[in-house]
C-alpha cells in the first residue's frame, strides 16, 4: 500500500485517508474516490489529497477485520458488522470470559496494523457485553498478514466463553452471640443476588454454632442428602479464619472432605477457604463477602458457576490484579434491597443547564428562563426532581450562569459552574459527577433542563425500576422504542463518565458497560425539548429574558 498526497486529478480509485468537508457535503475517510468525488474535490479548490493506493495483495480494512473476526469463531458470542476497520465481539450469555494471552499477543505481533483487544482474563460478563474487538489500523493491510492472523486463531483459542450453569447452592452459616441475625439474613440475601446471573439459587440454609463439630455435622448432612445434594456448599463463618486448622477448614476435614487452599493473594478476600466433599466444591467465604463490593470470593464463585474447579495453583496465581481494595472504578454488585449500611438504594440527580442555546438566536431569549405555568423552566425542572424525592440535586450551569443560578435561588439545589461548557455536554457530566454529594450515590438521574413535559410520575417510575434492579442497571426514558431523556446511570459507570470528552453524552458507556438496560416508556415527554423560540411556544411556554 502506498500512502501520501497526490494531485486530486490522479486520485481516482484511491482510498481517501482523511475526511473532507466540502460545500456539497462530507466525504468520509476510507471512501474509494470516484470521478464524481474528484469533480467535487476540485470544485472545492483542493489541488492535492492524501490517499492510500492499493498494491497487489492488499486487503481493505473492513475485509481484513471481517476475515480475522470470522476466524475467531467462539461459541456464545456474536460479531458486529465490519465498519471503519473494526469488528466488535459481544457475549450472548452470562458467563466467564477466558483469554489466552499467548495467542492474543502472538496475533498482535504479526503486523502492527492488525490488532485484537479483549477484556481481562476470567472477567465475569453479562449477555450483550463487549468482550473483544478486532481493529485494523491502516486503511489496508497485506492479505498475507491477514491470512497469517486468521490461521493463528483458526482452530485455536485466542479466547473462549464459558456460560454459567445453574447450581443448587447450600448455605451453612455459623453463629456467635455477637453476630446479629439481621447480618446473617443480609448475607443470605446478598449471596442469592450474586447467584442470579447464573440462574443459581440457595435451596437450603443451615445455621449452626461456630464449632468444628457442628459445622462438620452440617456438612455431612447437606452432602449426604440423596437426590437433594447441592452442586456447591458455601460456609459463612461468624469469625474470620485465623489458621489452617481453624473451625471451617477443620470442619471440612472432619466431614471427610479435603481442603485445597486456605488464604488467597486477593485483597479483599485473603481469608477464603476452598475445599471439597467428594465432587461437591466447598467455599469458606471470607468476611468481606458479606459486602456487595467485589472481592476474592466473587473470583472463586464465578469460576465454579462457569464449570471450573479452581485449584491451589490457580489461587496462588491470582496476586497480579488481586489488589481490589479502594479501587472505586470497579463495578460492584449491589444488594437489591439494602446497602451494607441498611439504607435504601440512593439516587441523586444532575440537571444539565449549561448549554449555549444557540438555536434561540443570537442575543435572543434564554430557553431555560422561559415561563411555564408561571415558573421559569430551569426552576420548574429542578422542582420536579426534588418532588420526585431525588437527593441531592445538582444543577450544572454555564452559559449565562449568573442568571440561571439567580433563578434557582431558594430551591434546595446545589449549583456548580462548568467553565468548559462551550466544549459540549461531556464537560457538564464530568463537572456534575465530581460533586461530592452525587458521586457517593448508588445512581444518578441525568436530566436536560429544557424538557418541560417530564413529570414527577415519569421520574418516579424510572427510580422505582432502578431500585428494583438493586442499583445495577441503566434506566432510560423511551417512547415508541426510541431512546430519549432522562436517564439513570448506576455508580459502576461513574468513572467511565468522568473520562468523557467533547460534545458527547454517555451513550457509548451505556452500550458497553455490560449492565442490564431497562427502558421506561414515558410517552412523547422523552423527546420534547425546547431548542427554538417556536418550540418554547408550542410547548406552552412564554419567552422571557
UniProtKB/TrEMBL annotation:
Keywords, comma-separated and alphabetical: Kinase, Magnesium, Transferase
Protein name as it appears in the record: 4-diphosphocytidyl-2C-methyl-D-erythritol kinase
Domain MoaB/Mog: 170-306
GO molecular function (one): kinase activity
UniProt xrefs under CDD domains: GT_2_like_f (cd04182), MoeA_like (cd03522)
Alphabetical list of InterPro entries matching this protein: Bifunc_Mopterin-bd, MoaB/Mog-like_dom_sf, MoaB/Mog_dom, MobA-like_NTP_Trfase, Nucleotide-diphossugar_trans
Keyword match Kinase: yes
A UniProt-annotated Pfam family: NTP_transf_3
Amino acid at each position: 500500500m502506498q500512502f501520501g498526497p497526490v494531485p486530486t486529478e490522479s486520485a481516482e480509485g484511491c482510498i481517501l485517508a482523511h475526511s473532507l468537508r466540502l460545500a456539497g457535503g462530507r466525504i468520509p475517510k476510507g471512501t474509494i474516490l470516484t470521478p464524481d468525488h474528484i469533480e467535487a474535490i476540485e470544485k472545492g479548490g483542493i489541488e492535492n489529497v492524501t490517499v492510500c493506493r492499493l498494491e497487489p495483495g492488499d486487503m481493505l480494512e473492513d475485509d481484513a477485520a471481517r476475515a480475522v473476526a470470522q476466524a475467531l469463531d467462539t461459541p456464545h458470542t456474536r460479531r458486529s458488522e465490519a465498519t471503519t476497520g473494526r469488528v466488535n465481539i459481544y457475549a450472548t450469555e452470562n458467563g466467564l470470559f477466558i483469554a489466552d494471552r499467548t495467542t492474543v499477543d502472538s496475533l498482535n505481533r504479526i503486523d502492527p496494523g492488525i490488532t485484537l483487544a479483549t477484556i481481562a482474563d476470567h472477567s465475569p460478563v453479562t449477555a450483550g457485553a463487549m468482550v473483544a474487538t478486532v481493529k485494523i489500523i491502516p486503511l489496508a493491510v497485506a492479505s498475507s498478514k491477514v491470512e497469517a492472523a486468521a490461521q493463528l486463531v483458526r482452530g485455536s483459542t485466542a479466547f473462549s466463553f464459558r456460560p454459567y450453569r445453574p447450581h443448587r447452592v447450600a448455605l451453612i452459616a455459623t453463629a456467635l452471640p455477637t453476630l446479629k441475625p439481621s447480618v446473617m439474613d443480609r448475607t443470605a440475601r446478598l449471596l442469592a443476588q450474586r447467584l442470579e446471573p447464573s440462574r443459581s439459587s440457595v435451596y437450603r440454609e443451615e445455621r449452626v454454632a461456630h464449632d468444628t463439630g457442628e459445622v462438620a455435622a452440617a456438612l455431612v448432612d447437606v452432602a449426604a442428602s440423596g437426590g437433594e445434594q447441592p452442586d456447591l456448599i458455601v460456609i459463612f463463618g461468624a469469625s474470620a479464619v485465623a489458621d489452617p486448622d481453624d473451625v471451617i477448614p477443620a470442619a471440612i476435614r472432619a466431614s471427610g472432605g479435603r481442603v485445597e487452599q486456605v488464604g488467597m493473594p486477593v485483597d479483599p478476600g485473603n481469608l477464603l477457604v476452598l475445599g471439597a466433599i467428594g465432587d461437591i466444591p466447598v467455599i469458606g467465604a471470607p468476611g468481606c463477602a458479606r459486602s456487595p463490593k467485589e472481592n476474592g470470593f466473587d473470583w472463586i464463585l464465578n469460576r465454579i458457576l462457569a464449570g471450573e474447579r479452581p485449584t491451589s495453583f490457580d489461587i496462588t496465581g491470582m496476586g497480579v490484579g488481586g489488589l481490589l481494595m479502594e479501587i472505586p472504578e470497579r463495578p460492584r454488585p449491589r444488594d437489591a434491597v439494602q446497602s451494607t449500611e441498611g439504607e435504601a438504594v440512593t439516587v441523586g440527580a444532575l440537571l444539565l443547564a449549561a448549554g449555549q442555546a444557540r438555536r434561540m438566536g443570537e442575543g435572543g431569549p434564554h430557553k431555560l428562563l422561559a415561563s411555564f405555568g408561571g415558573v421559569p423552566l430551569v426552576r420548574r425542572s429542578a422542582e420536579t426532581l426534588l418532588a420526585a424525592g431525588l437527593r441531592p440535586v445538582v444543577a450544572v450551569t454555564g452559559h449565562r450562569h449568573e442568571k440561571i443560578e439567580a433563578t434557582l435561588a431558594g430551591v434546595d439545589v446545589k449549583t456548580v459552574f462548568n467553565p468548559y461548557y462551550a466544549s459540549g455536554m461531556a464537560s457538564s457530566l464530568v463537572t456534575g459527577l465530581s460533586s461530592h454529594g452525587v458521586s457517593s450515590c448508588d445512581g444518578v438521574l441525568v436530566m436536560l433542563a429544557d424538557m418541560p413535559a417530564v413529570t414527577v410520575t415519569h421520574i418516579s417510575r424510572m427510580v422505582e425500576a432502578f431500585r428494583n434492579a438493586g442499583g445495577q442497571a441503566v434506566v432510560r426514558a423511551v417512547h415508541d422504542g426510541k431512546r430519549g431523556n432522562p436517564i439513570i446511570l448506576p455508580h459502576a459507570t461513574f468513572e467511565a463518565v468522568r473520562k468523557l470528552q467533547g460534545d458527547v453524552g454517555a451513550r457509548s458507556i451505556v452500550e458497553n458497560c455490560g449492565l442490564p438496560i431497562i427502558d421506561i416508556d414515558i410517552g412523547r415527554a422523552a423527546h420534547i425539548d425546547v431548542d427554538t423560540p417556536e418550540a418554547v411556544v408550542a410547548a406552552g411556554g412564554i419567552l422571557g429574558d
